[in-house]
Every structure is written in C-alpha cells, then in structure tokens.
Amino acid sequence: MSEPILEIRDLKKSFNALKATDGVSLDLQPGQIHALIGPNGAGKSTLIHQIAGSLKADSGTIRFLGQDIGSLDMAARARLGLARSFQISSLAQEFSALRNVMLAVQAKAGSSFRFFRQVTSDRRLIDPAMAMLERVGLAHRAHVPAAELSHGERRQLEIAIALALQPKAFLFDEPMAGMGPEGSKQLTTFLDGLRHEAPMLLVEHDMDAVFALADRISVLVYGRIIATGTVDEIRRDPEVRRAYLGEAA
Amino acid sequence: MTRETAINLLLAALLLALPLIAAGIGEPFYVTLATRVVVLALAAVGLNLALGLGGLLSFGHAAFFGLGGYAAGILATHAFNAEPLFAGIPGTTSMPLIWLVAIAVAGLVALPIGAISLRTTGVYFIMITLAFAQMIYYFAISWPAYGGEDGLSIYVRNSFPGLNTAQPLPYFLICFAVLIAALLLFRLIEGSRFGSAVQAARQNGVRLAAVGIPPFRIRLVAFVLSAMITGLAGALYADLNRFVGPSMLSWHMSGELMVLIILGGKGRLFGPVAGAMIFVCLEYVLGGITERWQFFLGLILLGIVLFARGGFLGLLSGKPRHV
Amino acid sequence: MFTALLIEQLLNGLQLGVMLFLMAAGLTLIFGVMGLINLAHGSLYMIGAFACAVVASATGSFWLGLIASLVAAAGVGALIEVAVIRRLYDRDHLDQVLATFALILILSEGARWLFGSFPLYLDIPKLLQGAVPLPGGGQYQLYRLAIIAVGIVVAVGLYLLIARTRLGMRIRAGESDREMIAALGVDISTLYTVVFALGAALAGLAGALVGALQSVQVGMGEPVLILAFVVIVIGGIGSIKGALVGAVIVGVVDTMGRFLLPSLLALTMPAAQATTIGAALASMLIYVVMALILAFRPSGLFAAQS
Question: How many other C-beta atoms are found inside a 10 Å radius of the C-beta of residue A11?
C-alpha cells in the first residue's frame, strides 16, 4: 500500500466528561474516497473539525502529506491543501457565488495582500472561478448573493470553493444533507469523479451514496472507530450490524 | 451611474462649492467650518476601513487621531523653539513631512494595539480598543513635556509648498484634496484582493480561514491602515485648530467618529462625508439655538440609531449593491 | 512608617476596587443576561451621586440621600430600559454603543441643565467621620473602611441573590437560555427591566458613596465607566466573580502603581524626573496589566462561556 495522504493516530478529544474522540486512527489513501459513518452524536463532525483545524485535539497526531499539522491553524492547513466543506453551509453571505469562489482562487494564489488591482475586472480570478461554477452546474447563478441561493445551490457552491483550492485532499462534511433525491444522485456522480483529483474523507448519512462511492468505510461509534474496511466487509461485519445498522440491516 | 454615485458626486461638489462661495463673499468662518467637515470626514474614512469594511468596531480611534495631532504639534513646537527632537533630529513645519510622521506614528502604535485587541472579538474588542485609547489619553494628560492637560498650541500654521496655509481657503483646499485622495484609496482598497479578504473576514471569518487566508492578519493590516488614515486626519485637525490637546484623544472623540459613520451610512464610500456634513451642521445649528445642544444632538442620534438604520445614504439610495 | 503607608495605600486600592465592583457587577450582569453593552452606566453612577447630594443637603441626612440615590438610579434605569434599551437587545453591538452613547449626551447635558455646571459637595455622615488607627502607626479614614464593608456586603448579597433566590434562578436561566425561560412562562421583559434597574441601583450606590469623597459633577461617571470596562474585560464578561476579582486587581494595581512607581524610579534617576515619569507610567499600568492578561486569556480570567 502506498503512503497515506492523511494519517491520523490515536486522536483524542474530550468535552468535560464526554469523550467525543476516543483514540481514533485512520488513513486516507491516494485516489480513494474514505467514508466515515456512524450514528448521530458519534463524533464525526468533531473529528472533521480537528482534522481541519477548527478544534484542537487533546492528544494524538495528524499527519498530512507526511507533515505533522497538529499545531497549525485552520488557514495554514488549508494552504497545505486540505479543503473542507461545512455541514451547515458557511459562505460570505453578501458576496455573489462568483466572488465566493474568486476568494478561494485568490487564496490559492496566495495574493491577498494586493491593494490596487480591482478584482471585478481581474480575469485571473474570474475565469478560474467561473470554470469551477460551471463544473458544479452553478454558472447561471454566478452573480446571485450567497444569501439568496437555495439550500442545494449553497452546497454546490461549497464544493466549487473546495475545487478552486486545487487541494491535496477533500474533507466533506455531509455534502448531501438536505438535498433532494435527484440532487443527491447528481452529486454522487460528481463526487465519484473527484477521487482522481484528490482523495476524499467523506462524512455522510446517505447510505446509498456512501455504498456507491466509498473505497473504504470507517464506522465511528461513541468516538471510537469500531471497524474499517471495504463496503462488503463493513456490510458483513457483525459488530457494525449490531451497533449501527441495527434492525435496519 | 448608480443613484449612490450621483449622490456622492453631488456631496463632493457641494462640499467644494460652499467654501468657495463663502470665501468669495468674505465669510471665512464658513470656510473653516467646511474644513472641519473635511477633516472629520477624513478621520471617519479611516475608521470606515476598519468598521465598515472589516466589521471591526474600534472604539479607540481617537488614539490615532490624537497621535496624529500630537505628531504635528510636537514637530512644530520643536521647529518653532529650534530645539532638536532627539539625537539632533530637528522639528519641522512642513506639512508633507508632518503628515508622513503622523501616518507612521499612528501605524506603529496601531500595530501592537491591533495585535492584542484582535485576539478578541465582539464586545471585548470594543472595550479593549477603548481601554487602549484611554491609556494613551491618560499618558498625554500626565506627561508634562508637551502641555499635559493644557495641550499644545501651534503658533503658526505649518507650511505647504506653494500655498499660504494661514489663509482659510488654501488650507481648506489642501484638506479637501487629501480627503478626495483618501476616498479614492478607500475605493481602490475596497475593490482589491485585499478588500475582498477584509469584507469576507467581516461576513464570515471561518470561511476565510477555510480557504487558507488567515483572518487575523487581514484584520490587523486593515486596522493599521485604518489608523494611519485617521492619524493623518489628526495632523490636519491640529493644524486647523492650531492646537492639540488630550481632548483629541478622549473617548468622546472615538464615539463621535463612530457617530459620523452611522449618520452617513456604514461601509459606504461617502458615508463618513455625509455623516461629517450632517454632524457639523447639527452642531453649528443647534449650538446657535441653544446652549444645551448636546442634549438635542443626543436625542437626534438616538432617533437615528433606533429608527433610521442605514444612515443618510441608506435613506437616499436604498440597499447597498453587492458584487 | 513605610508599613503604615503601604497598608493605607493597599486599603485605598481595595476601596477603589470595591467601588469599581459596584459598577462592574451591574455592567457584567446586564451583558450576561441581556447581551447589552451599556455605555450609559456611568450616567447612572452620576445620577446616584446627584440624588444623594441634593437630598442630603435638603434634609440634612446622608442616609436619606443614600436611599434617594438607590431609588433615583433604579428609577431612571427602569425608565430608560423601557423607553430605549429594550429596543436594543436584538441589535448589534454597534447600535448598542451608539444608542447608549447618545444616552450619555442626553443624561449629562440634562444633569447640567438641572444642577448647573458647578460641582456639588456631599459631607461624610457624622457616624462615619473620624479615623481608625492602623498597625505600624498612622490612621485610616473610617468612611473608606465603610465603603469596603459595603462592597463586601453587596458581593455576598449578590452571590446569595443569584445562587439562592427565585429571581437569581431566572437570571441564571436568562444567561443560558432565553427561549427556554420564556417558554416556561417567565415574563422576560419584566425580568430584564428588573435586572437593568438592579444594575443601575448598584451604580447609583457607588456614585453616592464616592460622592462624599470627591465632588459631585457632570462627567464624573465616565472615567469610572472605563475602569469598570477594564475590570470586566479582565474578569471575563458576564461573570460576577470575575468582576469582583478584576475590580480588586484594577483597584490595587492602579493605587499601588501610583504610590510605588515614582519611588522605585527614584532609585535610578533624579526625584523630580522620577515623579513625572512615574506618574505617567502609573496611569498606564492597569492597561498594561489588562493587555498581559488578555494575551494569555483572551476572554478574561473567569470567562462565562466560550
């Protein structure tokens, strides 16, 4: 097996008495979509927050591209190539969809301390940003303020922003949440094509999508990973069936 | 041309035309009043960069305004008395030099104040910027070398090459030109990559960090730039009054600068200009009618905050446009 | 002799701290429960001082004046809460700052209108005149000791009020979950008025107590207000315990700085120079302390919530 892109070892995080992350280890391999599933309150989002840098782990290591990123802040991790989407859309609400993506293009170029050239006529920002909006099918809404986009469109915009960062890994926190069946199906196809651009750690409740997309699945219950394996292995795993799939299986 | 742009041009034309007319008919007092509008507007343009664009509610910009003023006063005093400042460096009465010093001093002081204050957010940020400004205020009061509580007089208005600054009109024109330059600079910054980042930091700092731009650094630079413009205004204000005192550093001054922006319209290019025009007019008109003008100013301000959100420009030109 | 001086200055610092606590407790309570930043808190302090001075000189009784200060400050507080402040709870901090800034202009100018620009004076009540001997020689004003005692009583009283009473329970609930207590049928707008009036009364009490030490005049509340801000920033906004600790830190550091810095500097430079430089540095000291504390704990010593 090749060197993992993202390597998490024995990560721990407690909120008072609650062990939200209780010794999690996980590898994200190149070219793979690695799904993270688990019942509500299992600590999936907390884990994503620690990887992205918006929460600090109590102990354990997170290595990204071979580098220990545990002490870096969120912006520094993003610059290294970790692109995240948020469970609840987090956008610059007053900016248009296009300006939101342009901000990511500008961030990728590392050029936020330029004071004179006007962004509204800057093709080096507009063109790549527009291209990303086209890829996610949002080009026709480019000039609409983010606050006025529909829920599904905001999710698409989050993905376009992540794409614009040309990341080394995607962290997607429930990208399908609140999308209709049609939207979920389209997004599944779209995410499927992304694995060759960069590997993806995917938190998702939509099991159809997870089983269709994932190369590997980890099951998180009460802050612990109880099983990791291929789709078939997870389906067959008795502990997973008991703890998670329960009667539904 | 949008409606707001038209109003902006009208305001600028009005602000230029009135003192020209006043000077023409021999009413220099109104020229000085207009200069006061221009200088306060400039100070508020500086604050607007932090408050309007960046959403940083600095309640301590009087510190930078006063520091700019003291830079002018101290340099002029040393030049007047022919005493070197320190290490043989002489004072100066040249405005361009004084401006540079005022800008530099305001920026240098804003850097550590911003670096500490920006670690906090919300109401903490408001109170900490206020507290730092008070620190400088009390320092100015208790430091006797430059007048302490009594302040410092500038006996002869500082000079500008080729113009007679002692006359009200040329001095107004200098200040007006500086204001226009600052407005252009504000417009440029607002539309630049940096401006995008500052506005994004106001709207959603987490989003900004998630794409890899550190909000802290963006906010700090915005804060320092903002302080530099307000510092420049302080130097002009000192020369306007030929006096600088601790009152320029007081928290009333910080409050007034915020009031100017809110009166005119927060985050709008000409908000500070409209705000300063309204404020100085109110002050002048109310002050002419009653000794208790501050009482009525307070009532009017309260009414505006409670019932007229968006300020003067908001009332006239509707919602701000988004790009 | 130095020991006596030191003790005297420490007590002065404590007395300043107590007075700041009375101010800061109201500010921090109002912020914690209603999320409001109230610049006009200093005006309520001023109102308390004026009410006390006017009633005391009319009746000859400081104690009636003291009651008047509580009534006047709480009354004006309740009035402005109903008329203005309650429209601000859902607004952002900028609107709150500006509206309460406007209130300062109105209340200060209003006070000048009513009472004139000349300061009023308030005598220390007979009962509390005189001094107490200090260990190591020297004497200490009884009245200042009484202020310290009042502060301790108020601190204990506030603690009991919040920890033990039904009102306190509602205040605590209001801090954590507004919708919940509204859903439970507590009249939230009355609760807010009561909390605001309580904070106002404490500010008024502080103003009246200090009024007998200084002159009573317009604008007297503003320096105190800003010190009280420093206190709650240090202590952690929303925390009464933080307000108490912060107030004592600020009171003692400020007083001791003014006392000790000039003498310390005198060891290394001429006395006259040491006095001016020491005074200037001492006036900045609490802000430096605040900056240091915030550098390590950006939300204060006893941050209520993150």
Answer: 23
